[in-house]
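Data's thin. Show one?
=====
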Amino acid sequence: MMGLKVSCFVFFLLLQAVNGDVSYSFQEEMKRGSLIGNIAKDLNLDSSKLFARNARVDAAGNRKRYCDISLSTGDLIVADRIDREGLCGEKLSCVIKRDLVLENPLELHPFSLHIHDINDNSPQFKEELINIEIRESAVRGARFVIEEAHDADVGQNSVQQYSLKKNDNFILAVNGNTIELVLDKELDREKQQNINLLLTALDGGSPQRSGTVVIHVTVLDANDNVPVFSQAVYKASLPENSPLDTVVVTVSATDADEGVNGEVTYEFGHVSEDVKKVFSIDRKNGKIKVKGAIDFETVATYDLRIKAKDGLGLSSYTKVTVDVTDVNDNIPVIYVKSLANPIPENVSPGTEVSIINVQDADSDNNQQVRCSIQQGAPFKLVPSIKNYYSLVTTGQLDRELVSDYNITITATDEGSPPLSSSKTVQLSVADINDNPPVFEEQSYSAYVAENNKPGSTLSSVTARDPDWRQNGTVIYSLLAGEVNGAPVSSYLSVNGDTGVIHAVRSFDYEQLRSFKVHVMVRDNGSPPLSSNVTVSVFISDVNDNSPQILYPAPEGNSFMTELVPKAAHAGSLVSKVIAVDADSGQNAWLSYHIVKSTDPGLFTIGVHSGEIRTQRDISESDSMKQNLIVAVKDNGQPSLSATCSMYLLISDNLAEVPELKDISYDEKNSKLTSYLIIALVSVSTFFLTFIIIILGVRFCRRRKPRLLFDGAVAIPSAYLLLITQTLTEQELYAALTIMTPT
């Protein structure tokens, strides 16, 4: 505005109200950014903490704040245009109440802004031309009421005086808000039928403002009575949201004149256009009706100026005051002022996660609000200051059970009937590394056939971690240890990402049949959590070992001959093939077969025992030297085998075998062969003596004699001596066990 110097007119007047509220007084229409006062200093607040505490000026509902706070200095500054006339109308005192809100902890400091009027509005008459009809019979001193001018400013800045331009017939009389033209000199219609007067209204502002209106006086014949209202002031009460055409009040005025001079009509005096949109008046009967929407929250009181005019233009005025009563037509509105999202799952019960503010534009009981929260969620609302609530936790959160919460807050007012509204606050729970990885099984078993290829897959382990992202990402590794004195890493490896276990080397069942390793899984949290599991590795046998014949010794190492008595009957045990297999299971199940013999029908061998027996009685026609080739097969797939040669001599005495001396042997074993021949002769002699005794006993019992060889292994002692020299202790023990007569 012209002449307005904000720096000169701003009042930094700090008032302390009875209730402790801080108040500031300043003029309207200050520029945005203008300083009002330092509220931080006035409230003894640390201005350096305003930003961290999210300090802000808060206004109820959607109303303008009009001011804001500087977070660096604590200054209260103008944020929006402040028009006192638009905010408070004709009220002399214009006060705006706002709140300063701080968080962590929550504080609420109400303060008041007293807006002072400046002279920014000129006086204004309702009409640019006022028509008055005055009869020439009017006597000197007659008074004619003129509608006053209206100035939107208040106090000294409102209309203070009126002046009438000098003329021959009228002077001006002003008494309060009543303006009257006083007839100072009688009118003479024949001399002057129309008179134009210039009326000026002046306010008391600086600089002074003014407004003018032309009063057109038409001189008529006498009409000496003005309409008179039945009441100086009419009062009415009107509920908001009243339907259209509702009768608010009926004004009534009478005129003592007769005829046209006594006919009264009604109209609005000086009222705003907004009032004309809300109310209408019947020109004839004076009924004031509802024309537009009545809203208590917008305007609580209407002051209507009503004019009554008779047929010849004489008029009078009255005032109608309409008080709008509140109806519970506004639902509570929920505002989320602050929200910590997401929330760590390890927050302690009682932690504040949000600040909720509830506003209801109604008044009295209709404005009182109760807040509640849905059941089942670990949260509650704690009443704080005024209409503020703190949303706090009531229990321990667990993201693995519930990762998101939709919390419904319901606000209900005390109106009749009550109105309510709801708002859903969405909260996410942030993960912390509070769960170690857990294997799906308590232990794992891996099976692998021997002779596997290095790098082959044996098994896999799987662990789950219910945590999120890196806290739930797992890595597998082998725990340090030894297997048969070697590091476990030289046997197995594990894929850190997939948990797949691979063989590092080829396994040999005959050397290692099983072993255990420990696999560790850890997550990527901070600090990381881990767990272990045992993996048992079982190596299965593969048929990779051929049978090993212990007796008779492999061909070429020594010369072995079995002596078969000529009197041997069918079924007599003459010898036994002894073999072992380093494999196990069915791969070590051995079977014995005669693949070649001098006389195919003379001897047979037990498939599973390896015992060589006669199939029939020995006859004189049978060749003295019998040569058998025996194959020993295992039960593997494919089957492996070994062969040996068995030399049998059908004779009762070695002396009967002249060819024996011609059998050649290596010079280096000549001494051993001599021992074997001596031992063979001794054993044979012993056996022959024993047979004679048995035959004698059986002859005495008149039973057919049987040879000693029946059920006994005919193994010369010379061969036993050779076995002791060529076999290990364990192999010898196994051989002797097998050679034991069945």
About this structure: The helical segments are 6-9, 39-42, 84-88, 273-278, 670-700, 717-726, 729-739.
